[in-house]
Design goal:
The protein starts with a helix and ends with a helix. By secondary structure, the protein is an all-alpha fold. About 80% of the residues lie in helices and about 0% in strands. Helix 1 crosses helix 10 and helix 4 packs antiparallel against helix 12. The protein is globular, with a radius of gyration of 21 Å.
């Protein structure tokens, strides 16, 4: 498999759209709590935050349509509802979270200004990039992403060679599952189905209409982005574990990340971290808003007015929601993720499997079972765990927020065995 300059530019652009606020803040605290079980936590985290998103990019390479194609085998109506839900969640939670993180970690330590001013300037710049979307791939891939990657690598490498504290025992009884569920908060699987479409449309705007050539380019760029994400995630989790006796046990995500940069790079680390946070968050917000605007443009028959209106509304919503602190946005996101993530994972997997195993009837059965069985996880996340405890006890992995997993797998196998016997 040959990788050329175009592959790396597209791969770095894809990496930068994935790598945002949660991707930077979540791994260190996860490693901090995991302690000597950091490797198991990394395994779980990589499954939901690297492997599944990478498969989502592969699915886009295979379909090369819009996000509506991901669920079209279930039904056109379901596909539209699913897409609207995903885009609403994307512009209401992960996109504003990038502005909130930028304010807390890149602006507040240096300037005594309001979060409203930060998010207003931030999303004005995001809108500028979104309206010039034909330049997104080259700007992100050639300039912003290499800076992001280099700064993170410096923090990771210095941390590995400078930490002297022994690694304490893990606080997790099920580290792999904790890592898996924490990977939900990166929004990377949802990001794959959103920004994968941005890559495809950007390629077509540049005149690349050769299906097979685009397929190879998207797959290779996905591999580049996946390797980058794996290196950063594993490195940041390991760094968190290395420093898990150097901070108070109740340290917050932002405090830990700031403290680690201070310990590894000194005072200049704060400046480096501020640059990194600003760039990482900004590129993700651009990817989310562009993807949402592309979708609405397609729904309204390629209307440029729909693209512009969606971009403006998404940025205004980002300014409003960006006033909440990071912790509050993460807490609000949990119920939404418990419902939408299982559906997204199932759709990604079904779209990368061979056609002979994924007939429309298989799609419908597996998705319906996933939705039904993810409802207990959703209800538990909104404070109704006591009322549905008997259901959670009955379902395999029900008490680990994975009640949907085995029923979905079983449904897929049963449906295919049924069709095989029928033939």
């Amino acid at each position: 498999m040959r990788f050329n300059k175009e592959t790396f530019v597209a791969g770095f652009a894809l990496f930068s759209m994935f790598f945002g606020a949660g991707n930077l803040m979540l791994p260190p605290l996860l490693g901090f709590k995991a302690g000597d079980a950091w490797l198991l936590v990394t395994l779980g985290f990589v499954i939901s935050a690297v492997i599944i998103p990478l498969l989502g990019i592969f699915a886009h390479a295979r379909l090369q349509g819009t996000m509506l194609d991901f669920a079209k085998k279930v039904s056109p109506t379901f596909s539209l509802i699913y897409c609207v839900l995903v885009y609403c969640i994307s512009i209401a939670l992960p996109s504003p979270r990038t502005a909130s993180v930028t304010h807390e970690m890149a602006i507040q330590p240096f300037f005594d200004t309001s979060s409203l001013l930060t998010s207003s300037i931030y999303f004005a710049l995001v809108l500028l990039f979104v309206l010039n979307r034909n330049k997104i791939l080259s700007i992100l891939g050639k300039f912003l992403t290499p800076i992001i990657f280099i700064v993170v690598l410096i923090i990771i490498c210095v941390g590995i060679f400078s930490a002297e504290s022994p690694i304490a025992s893990s606080r997790f009884q099920t580290p792999v599952i904790h890592g898996l569920l924490e990977g939900y908060q990166t929004f990377d699987a949802i990001g794959a189905v959103v920004v994968g479409g941005v890559i495809i449309i950007s390629l077509k705007l540049k005149g690349a209409h050769d299906f097979e050539r685009n397929r190879r380019l998207i797959i290779k760029s996905g591999i580049v982005a996946g390797i980058g994400l794996f290196i950063i995630y594993a490195g940041m989790i390991y760094n968190g574990a290395l420093f898990n006796t150097a901070f108070e046990s109740n340290v917050t995500r932002t405090e830990l990340l700031s403290g680690m940069s201070l310990k590894t790079l000194g005072n200049i680390g704060t400046v480096f971290l501020s640059i990194l946070v600003g760039l990482a968050c900004f590129t993700t917000a651009v990817g989310i808003i562009t993807g949402t605007a592309d979708f609405m443009k397609g729904v309204f028959k390629n209307s440029q007015k729909a693209y512009l209106a969606t971009a403006i509304i998404g940025c205004i919503l980002g300014v409003v929601m960006g006033q909440f602190d990071v912790h509050s946005i993460i807490n609000v996101a949990v119920p939404a993720l418990m419902f939408i993530y299982p559906i997204t994972i199932v759709l990604i997997l079904l779209n990368v499997l061979p056609e002979k195993f994924t007939s429309p009837l298989v799609f419908k059965a597996v998705v319906i079972v996933s939705i039904v069985c993810s409802l207990p996880d959703f209800l538990a996340s909104v404070g109704m765990k006591e009322q549905i405890q008997s259901i959670l006890d009955f379902l395999p992995f029900g008490n680990y927020s994975l009640a949907w997993l085995l029923p979905a797998i079983a449904t897929f196998i049963i449906m295919n065995v049924f069709f095989l016997l029928k033939k």
